[in-house]
Amino acid sequence: MGRAGRSSSAYDARSAGSIAPRIRACRSAVHPITLAAVALLVLNDWVLKPRFGPSLVTGKLSDLAGLVVAPVALSAGLGLCLRLAAMLGAAVDPSLSRRRLVLCTLATGAVFAAVKLDPAAARAVAAVISQLGRPAAIYLDRSDLWCLPALAVALWIGRDELRRVPLGRPAAIHRLGRAARPALDDARWAGAPADRIAALAAAIDAWDVAAIDAALRRKQVREQAGEP
Asked: Please, are residues 115 and 172 in contact by the beta-carbon 8 Å criterion?
C-alpha cells in the first residue's frame, strides 16, 4: 500500500509507537526565554506599574516583553487548534512550521504598529483586553516602535524549535503520507545539519519508529553537549 493509503494516526500509540507522546502544540511556549519574558511582563504589569505608576521604563518593558511573548502565544494557540482538528481527522500538521512562525511574527508587528499609530486600533485592542478581565489602556507613542526589533527574539525562539525538528512533525509527516525530505525543509532552513536531517527523513519514510526516536535523541544529546 502507498504512503497516502496508510491508516496510521499520529495520535494513536499503537501506530505511532513512542513518537505519540511527543505530539505537542508548540515547544516554543515553554522555551526559557519565553518564560522569562512572561515573568517580566507579569512583574512589570502587576507589580512595577501599580507601585511606581506608568513611566517610560515600565512602558517600554511591557512593549519589549510583549513583543517576545505575543508571536509565540499566537503560534501556540494556532497549534492547539490545529492539533484538535487533526485529532478530529483533518489532514493538517499541528507542529510548528516556518510559515506559521513568520506569519505570527509579522501579524504581531502589524498589530503593535497599528495600536501605537492609530487611535481607533488602540481603542479596539484595549477593549478586547479589558473583556479578558483586566482593564487596559493603550497610549499612542511612536517611540514605542523602536521596540519592534524585539520580534527578532521571538523569531529566534521559533527557529530554535524548527532546527531541533518540531515535536510531532515525524508522526504528522507519516500520517499525511508526505515525503519526509521536503517536509523537513523547515529544519534545514533553521540550521539543522543536512546529514542528520537526511538520516531522519530516511527513517520517517521507512516508518522505523526506533530509528526516528534514536535520531531525535542523538540530536538532543549533541545539543546538550554544545554541538551543532
From this structure: no
Copy the grid coordinates of residue 166: 518540531
Report whether 150 contacts 71 (CB < 8 A): no
Distance between CA atoms of residues 223 and 219, nearest Å? 6
**Could you report the per-residue pLDDT of 151-173, keeping only the tens digit for each?**
999 999 999 999 988 878 999 99
- Give the Cα separation of 173 and 204 in Å (integer): 8
pTM of the model: 0.82
Distance CA 72, CA 224 (A): 23
Taking alpha carbons only, the member of 174, 200, 206 closest to residue 185 is 200
Residues, the chain = 228
Lookup result for grid cell 497549534: 79
Instruction: List, for residues 86-141, the tens digit of each pLDDT value.
Output: 999 999 999 999 999 999 999 999 999 999 999 999 888 888 878 877 777 778 88
Cα gap 113→99, rounded to integer Å: 21
- Which among 24, 18, 2 is positioned nearest to 208, based on CA atoms? 18
* Joined grid coordinates for residue 151: 520580534
Q: Which of 75, 120, 108, 113 is nearest to 94 (CA)?
A: 75
Phi-psi region of 207 (alpha: psi -120 to 50; beta: other; left: phi over 0): left
> What one-character DSSP code corresponds to residue 134?
S
3-state SS string for 165-195: CCCCHHHHHHHHCCCHHHHCHHHHHCCCCHH
Instruction: Supply 88's cell numbers.
Output: 478530529
Cell of 213: 526516536
